[in-house]
Amino acid sequence: MTAPAIRVAGLSKNYGKHVALTDLNLEVQPGEVFGFLGPNGAGKSTTIRILLDLIRPTAGRIEVLGTDPRTGGAALRERIGYLPGELEIEGRNTARELLGFLADQRGTVAKRRIEELAELLDLDLAKHVGKMSKGNKQKVGIIAAFMHRPDLLVLDEPTSGLDPLLQQRFLGLVREAADNGQTVFMSSHILSEVQDTADRAVIMRAGKLLGTENVEDLRRRSPRSVELVFAEPVDEAEFAGLPGLRDLHVDGRTLKCTTEGEVDDLFKAAAKHRIQSVLSTEPDLEAIFFSLYGR
């Protein structure tokens, strides 16, 4: 059986009297895109820094790619691509010079790979990094994390500073990495940001793990708002009491309700009439998580 790409057991971190993490347990499987979600201050960045041995835990056990990060050294770090949540890049070097230096240190990066990623993210490699905007510095960080095609990508708030178009291009990179068998551990305070890419997601709050969910299963059993417009008025009594149906309201030709789980019974009942239009709205991950775990 293949070992998890990340295994965390009983992880806790205190800064004096301040408790940043409390008894965190999770596993991330190889090739999985894992959403690590929660508001700012929830403990996401603290967890990531412990995974990378940038800080040490107060208690708990950690394995990254089958190795304790405290002893994995350079051999482990070669297999990881990391984008910090607060990326600070200064200096007079151009982006091409900086990324070329990092590529040379790794020794496994084709220069054309840097050019391809820069073109995708609309980054001018001739610009000096010290004079770049936050968004352009973020692009440099993304390229540095992805360019060597690491076994594990650890991305902390990766789309910070990117415009919506580039956010979508970045998520395309995540999907490409997953297709290549790479593991992606992605932190975000924007839950909807990962719902199109993540296999599973967890939500953190105040240093505690509230729950772990398979995103596709979560979608299937999540409530949906449904609106049906019929050619002729319908009787509400025909639909009252159908399983999985709540908040039913019929006004003449228009039926509105919320469904939970399968919608087969609703549409079988509706099929007795001529339907002019159907509108079904699926909630985003934020609404789903809060409906399960409360605010």
TrEMBL record:
GO cellular component: plasma membrane
One family name in Pfam for this protein: ABC_tran
Top-rank taxon, per record: Bacteria
Molecular function via GO: ATP binding; ATP hydrolysis activity
Occurrences of domain ABC transporter (ranges): 6-231
Predominant location: membrane
Stated family: Belongs to the ABC transporter superfamily.
PROSITE patterns: ABC_TRANSPORTER_1, ABC_TRANSPORTER_2
Membrane topology: Peripheral membrane protein
Protein name per UniProt: ABC transporter ATP-binding protein
SUPFAM superfamilies: P-loop containing nucleoside triphosphate hydrolases
A biological-process GO annotation: response to antibiotic
Gene3D superfamilies (alphabetical): P-loop containing nucleotide triphosphate hydrolases
Keywords: Antibiotic resistance, ATP-binding, Nucleotide-binding, Transport
Keyword Nucleotide-binding in annotation: yes
